[in-house]
Design a protein that fits this description.
This protein is of the alpha/beta class. The chain is 28% helix and 20% strand.
Length: 583
């Protein structure tokens, strides 16, 4: 079935369907045969699902029948309604103990970047994959030996996750490991990269190279390069400018999309879409027909938009919607802007942080305002990466300034990660109509590090305070920021509802979401952030049949068991893209 139809809701007329009953949604009518003569005629559905459905639509939160035709949801109601939707060729699926939900939405992902990681040249050395320091160094040496003069690039260097024993990646060490071929190593957070002399030569980076906006190269006092690159603008310079051939990129993306479908994801963003990726994905001469996932593209913001590039380009499958700005960096490399001090611990001393606040952002207030002003009036959605509370203050100041001059727009300005965001900041953001995407997996993988090694109980345990955001009235999403952590929406729901770390410690239980709140953050509210809640994110007549079937109802199992549910089937626009055929 096609995945590119006219957009429903505010973009086109909705598909006719049963009218709501008194309880909301499509319900059974008074007629004995289940048909109401006052309702519009409904063509038979292609498939009708019968059983438990959690719709994420406040008009009708639960249903026992959902009908799909031509890739769209055409009916949501009770079993008595199914007769009106059923024809001689309609397939009926009895769900039994299984549960039907809208497909999951990853609002802060890197689908194309992760496709590159797992499908092309970057080598994965993340602690989830290569657990020990010795294994990391051994992988680097063996890969370089195999690739010879072409060199190699790696992602996942993590002094915290790998534990003690990683060598200090100085320029001297990098040159010793690879004296004749380019070597680039990105940290787990991808906010810091290390490169050797040959990589700098290949990239044309030397002591005279200016720092990109919002990024920088590490230098000594006399300007000599130190082999470090901070933030995306500098890191991108380290890779060959030609990018990947379109065919290679598309093949890698298809493999990545299949992995995402396995965990129930039907929509994801690419939060750092490079120009060559965007051109390949949006090329009108080469549509990506059959892609089993919706993509929303955010390009790294420059000083001004690229000529000829406009928000909204694309279709319902792949669409360009916004730009991303890295206002600060990562807690794991000490580059977030916070008003409170780091702890004095062995870890912070090894990172060279010292027990003092880190107050530096990647932009001044004026510089950030200039970038936002260049894009916002043209209709671009803005997403600002901001972990530290000082960075968040700056972003909210700039957002408030621009909103005071451009009133009345459905802007959905975004804050990304919001690790150290305060309660008063959530309240302020909600009043401005700003949304937040919360990196909840930090609590699971690094909860103890944040609390015991970096910031203490007051700040570390309350990291990623999702409940404070919801209580303030914000619409939030939960994300994995893949490839930073593995994509797994059900795991995110458990973490948000328990705040239990990998080691079993509960971090600030008052910040737990309910399972239903966490489900919203993985479906309809995440779709809202991506400007596509009019076509997906809930089981609502007129929307695409982007669906997931779970082994049980997540609202009826203990929160800690949600992550253990099985994704039995995933559908995009009514087409099953994962799982065995449903009987």
């Amino acid at each position: 079935m096609s995945t590119d139809h006219p957009r429903p809701g505010r973009h086109s007329a909705p598909i006719p369907g049963p009218v709501p009953d008194e309880a909301g949604g499509a319900g059974s009518g008074p007629a004995a045969d289940g048909l109401d003569p006052e309702r519009p005629t409904v063509l038979p559905a292609d498939v009708v699902f019968l059983g438990t459905a959690v719709t994420m639509d406040p008009a009708r939160p639960r249903a026992t029948a959902v009908a799909v035709r031509d890739g769209r949801i055409v009916g949501v109601g009770g079993r008595a309604d199914a007769h009106a939707w059923t024809g001689p060729d309609t397939r009926t699926v009895e769900l039994g103990d299984r549960c039907l939900l809208p497909g999951f939405v990853e609002a802060h992902g890197h689908a194309v970047a992760e496709a590159r990681l797992f499908g092309t040249d970057l080598v994965d050395i993340r602690p989830m994959t290569v657990p020990t320091p010795d294994d990391v160094v051994d992988t680097i040496r063996k890969t370089l030996a195999a690739r010879g003069a072409e060199g190699a690039a790696f992602i996942g260097w993590d002094t915290i996750g790998h534990g003690h024993g990683l060598p200090e990646p100085t320029l001297a060490w990098l040159d010793a490991v690879s004296p004749d071929a380019p070597l680039v190593i990105l940290t787990q957070s991808a906010h810091l990269g290390f490169f050797n002399t040959r990589a700098a030569e290949r990239a044309g980076v030397d002591r005279t190279t200016p720092d990109p906006p919002g990024a920088r190269f590490g230098r000594s006092q006399d300007g000599t390069l130190l082999g470090t690159a901070y933030e995306a603008g500098a890191i991108r310079r380290l890779f060959p400018a030609a990018g990947h051939p379109r065919e290679q990129l598309v093949a890698a993306l298809r493999r990545e999309v299949a992995r995402l479908n396995q965990v129930g994801v039907t929509t994801i963003s690419e939060m750092a879409c490079l120009p060559e990726w965007r051109d390949a994905l949006l090329d009108p001469k080469h549509r990506l027909d059959g892609l089993s996932l919706r993509l929303r593209l955010y390009s790294p913001a420059g000083k001004a938009p690229e000529p000829g590039v406009h928000p909204g380009e694309g279709d319902d499958l792949i669409r360009e919607v916004g730009v991303k700005i890295w206002v600060d960096g990562s807690p794991w490399v000490g580059t977030i802007a916070v008003s409170f001090p780091y702890l004095d611990t062995e870890l912070t001393r090894s990172m060279g942080l010292g027990s003092r606040p880190r107050t530096t952002t990647n932009y001044s207030w004026d510089a950030l305002a200039e970038v936002v002003e260049a894009y916002f009036p043209l209709g671009w959605q803005i997403a600002c990466h901001a972990h530290g509370d000082l960075a968040i203050d700056m972003v909210l100041d700039v957002y408030e300034s621009v909103l005071s001059r451009y009133r009345g727009r459905d802007h959905r300005l975004r804050l990304e990660h919001v690790g150290a965001m305060r309660q008063d900041q959530f309240v302020r953001a909600a009043a401005l109509g700003v949304t937040a995407s919360v990196f909840i997996d930090h609590v699971y993988y690094w909860g103890e590090v944040l609390t015991d090694d970096l910031f203490g109980e007051k700040y570390g345990a309350h990291w990623a305070a999702a409940r404070s955001a919801v209580d303030a009235g914000m619409r939030i999403s939960l994300h994995n920021d893949p490839p930073a952590t593995p994509e797994d929406p059900l795991h995110n729901i458990t973490v948000a509802a328990t705040r239990r770390s990998r080691q079993g410690r509960v971090m600030a239980p008052e910040e737990c979401l309910t399972v239903e709140q966490a489900l919203r953050a993985e479906t309809i509210d995440a779709a809202y952030q991506l400007l596509c809640d009019d076509i997906t994110g809930s089981l609502t007549p007129g929307k695409y049949a982007d669906l997931v079937v779970l082994s049980a109802n997540p609202l009826e199992v203990p929160p800690e068991d949600v992550r253990g549910l099985e994704v039995l089937a995933t559908f995009l626009a009514g087409r099953q893209v994962h799982g065995a055929p449903l009987a």
